[in-house]
C-alpha cells in the first residue's frame, strides 16, 4: 500500500485555485495535510467571471463565511437570474429565474395548465416570484416555504483575494513564482515542479488550476481535449468595466448581438460588461465597437480581449493530478457556470480524496461524473442558440441550422411533441430552467397534457399571490444598504 496523501500542491491561483485551497484546508483540517499553492503575479488571472448560480451559497456556508462580510469584501449584489434580450426575435425579452413557475394544479404540471389557457394566461414569468421580483428591482431573502433561491454578482478578483485570506489563515502556504519545468516519475505521475529561481516543489497530489494552458493536465500528462466549437462557435470576448448605473438590478443581462451576445453585471461599485463573439463572423474591432456602443454608462478602462475554445479535457483526473477550473474545460459564460463547475470538481475531489492506494477507480468515477456535468451544461447553453428564430445575420443563420448533439435533440424533440422536460438526478439545470428557455424563446409543444383543466381562477390566484408578495418586498438597493 502506498502512503496516505500528506501533501497537495495547487498550481495556479485565481478563483479556482483559491477555492480549492480554502476548501481542502477546511474540509481536510483533521488530516494534517500540507497544502501549498503556487502562483505568479506576473501571469495574472482571467478574473472577469462576476456572476454565479445559487449553489455557491452552499459552498460559502460550508466554509463558514458570513454573508455580509463576504459581500462587502467582493462588492457583491444579489442575483435572481438572467434577463435575455433579443434571443428568439429582436425585441423579445424573457427571464431565467432561480425559482419555480407556478404550481401543479390537480396534479398536472403548471406549464401544461398555462399552455391550455392560451393567451388568457398572460406572460409565463408572471407566475414566477423571482422573475416578478427582478422586473420590479426588488429583493428579499426567501423565507420558509418560498420556492426560489438566489446567487451573487461579485468582483471575481475580490473573491479570489477573500478566499486567499481564508486559506492562508487555515494553514495554506502560498509560493510566488513561475514554473519552468515539470518532472514525471516512472509511473507517469507528476513528481515535482521547478520554479525559475531554482526551487523544486514535490507533492503527493497535484491540482492543476493553471487556466486555459493546462500546464500539468495537458502539456505534461496529455489528457486530451473534447472540442465543442462546432456547437458553441463563440471563441473570444471583450470585457470592460463601466460606471455604476443608478438603481442596481438584482439580475444579470444577456443581450444577443449580431455575432454573439453581451453581458451586463451590476456590482455595488461598477458594472461589468462584455461581448462574447464568434471570430469567424465578426472582426475583433467590430466586436469591440459593438460592446462599447451598447454600454449603459461610460467605460472605466479600455476593453480587454480574452480568447478561448469551448470544450473540456477528455480526462480531468490523470494519475495524481486533478484539473479544476479553466484547466479542466470552458463553456462560454452565458449561464454563469464557470465557478459552479469548479465548485463541483472540488466537491467530487473531496468525496474521492485518495487516502492510501491510488485507486484508478477514483479517477474514473471523477472523470465520469464531471463528463456528465459538463455535457449537461453544454446542452443547456446550446439550446439558447438552437431555439432562435433569428435569421438576420450570418451568425444566427449558422447556429439555427447547425446539427445538435443527439442528447440535446432528444430533449427538444420530446418537449416539442409532448411538453415533457427531460429530468435527471445529476446536472445543474433542472426543469424550471429548461422551461424558462423553451417558453422564453417560443418553443411550444404540439399539445398539452389532456388532464389540464384550464382553471382560470387557479391561474389568477397564483398570479395575484406573486404580485402581492413582490409589492411587499424592499428594493434591491434597500436590501443591500441593510
What is this structure's SSE topology?
Blueprint: E1 7-11, H1 14-27, E2 34-39, H2 55-62, H3 67-74, E3 77-79, E4 81-85, E5 93-97, H4 110-117, H5 129-135, E6 151-153, H6 156-169, E7 173-176, E8 179-184, E9 190-195, E10 200-202, E11 205-208, H7 215-220, E12 225-227, E13 236-242, E14 252-257, E15 260-266, E16 271-277, H8 284-293, E17 304-307, E18 311-313, E19 317-318, E20 321-323, E21 329-330, H9 338-351, H10 360-386, H11 394-401, H12 406-418, H13 431-440, H14 456-471, H15 476-481
Parallel strand pairs: 1-2, 1-11, 2-7, 4-14, 11-20
Antiparallel strand pairs: 3-6, 4-5, 8-9, 9-10, 12-18, 13-16, 13-17, 14-15, 15-16, 18-21, 19-20
Helix pairs in contact: 1-6, 1-9, 9-10
Structure description:
The chain is of the alpha+beta class and 482 residues long. Helices cover 35% and strands 20% of the residues. The strands form five sheets. Strands 5-4-14-15-16-13-17 form a seven-stranded mixed beta sheet. A six-stranded mixed beta sheet has the order 7-2-1-11-20-19. It has a three-stranded antiparallel beta sheet with strand order 8-9-10, with no helix packed on it. The N and C termini lie far apart (56 Å). The relative contact order is 0.18.
Amino acid at each position: 500500500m502506498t502512503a496516505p496523501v500528506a501533501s497537495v500542491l495547487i498550481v495556479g491561483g485565481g478563483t479556482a485555485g483559491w477555492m480549492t485551497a480554502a476548501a481542502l484546508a477546511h474540509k481536510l483540517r483533521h488530516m494534517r495535510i500540507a497544502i501549498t499553492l503556487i502562483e505568479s503575479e506576473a501571469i495574472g488571472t482571467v478574473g472577469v467571471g462576476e456572476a454565479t448560480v445559487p449553489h455557491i451559497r452552499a459552498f460559502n456556508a460550508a466554509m463558514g463565511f458570513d454573508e455580509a462580510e463576504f459581500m462587502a469584501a467582493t462588492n457583491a449584489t444579489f442575483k435572481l437570474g438572467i434577463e435575455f434580450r433579443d434571443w428568439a426575435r429582436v425585441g423579445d425579452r424573457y427571464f431565467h429565474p432561480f425559482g419555480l413557475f407556478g404550481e401543479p394544479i390537480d396534479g398536472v404540471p403548471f406549464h401544461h395548465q398555462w399552455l391550455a389557457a392560451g393567451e388568457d394566461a398572460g406572460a409565463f414569468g408572471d407566475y414566477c416570484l423571482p422573475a416578478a421580483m427582478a422586473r420590479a428591482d426588488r429583493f428579499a431573502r426567501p423565507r420558509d416555504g418560498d420556492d426560489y433561491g438566489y446567487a451573487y454578482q461579485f468582483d471575481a478578483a475580490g473573491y479570489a483575494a477573500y478566499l486567499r485570506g481564508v486559506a492562508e489563515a487555515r494553514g495554506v502556504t502560498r509560493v510566488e513564482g513561475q514554473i519552468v519545468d515539470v518532472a514525471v516519475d516512472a509511473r507517469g505521475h507528476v513528481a515535482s515542479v521547478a520554479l525559475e529561481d531554482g526551487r523544486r516543489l514535490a507533492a503527493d497530489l497535484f491540482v492543476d488550476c493553471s487556466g486555459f494552458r493546462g500546464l500539468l493536465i495537458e502539456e505534461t500528462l496529455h489528457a486530451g481535449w473534447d472540442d465543442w466549437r462546432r456547437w458553441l462557435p463563440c471563441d473570444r470576448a471583450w470585457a470592460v468595466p463601466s460606471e455604476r448605473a443608478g438603481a442596481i438590478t438584482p439580475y444579470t443581462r444577456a443581450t444577443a448581438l449580431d455575432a454573439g451576445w453581451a453581458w451586463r453585471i451590476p456590482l455595488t461599485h461598477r458594472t461589468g460588461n462584455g461581448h462574447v463573439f464568434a471570430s469567424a463572423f465578426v472582426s475583433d474591432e467590430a466586436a469591440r465597437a459593438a460592446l462599447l456602443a451598447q454600454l449603459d454608462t461610460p467605460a472605466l478602462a479600455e476593453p480587454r480581449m480574452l480568447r478561448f475554445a469551448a470544450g473540456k479535457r477528455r480526462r480531468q483526473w490523470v494519475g495524481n493530478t486533478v484539473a479544476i477550473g479553466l484547466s479542466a474545460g470552458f463553456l462560454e459564460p452565458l449561464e454563469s457556470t464557470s465557478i459552479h463547475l469548479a465548485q463541483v470538481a472540488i466537491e467530487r475531489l473531496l468525496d474521492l480524496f485518495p487516502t492510501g492506494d491510488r485507486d484508478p477507480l477514483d479517477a474514473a468515477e471523477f472523470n465520469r461524473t464531471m463528463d456528465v456535468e459538463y455535457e449537461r451544461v453544454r446542452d443547456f447553453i446550446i439550446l439558447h442558440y438552437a431555439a432562435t428564430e433569428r435569421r438576420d445575420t450570418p451568425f444566427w443563420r449558422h447556429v439555427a441550422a447547425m446539427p445538435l448533439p443527439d442528447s440535446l435533440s432528444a430533449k427538444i424533440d420530446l418537449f416539442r411533441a409532448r411538453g415533457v422536460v427531460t429530468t435527471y438526478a445529476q446536472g445543474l439545470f433542472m426543469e424550471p430552467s429548461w422551461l424558462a428557455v423553451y417558453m422564453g424563446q417560443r418553443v411550444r409543444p404540439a399539445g398539452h397534457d389532456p388532464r389540464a383543466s384550464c382553471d382560470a381562477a387557479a391561474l389568477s390566484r397564483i398570479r395575484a399571490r406573486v404580485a402581492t408578495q413582490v409589492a411587499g418586498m424592499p428594493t434591491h438597493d434597500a436590501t443591500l444598504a441593510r
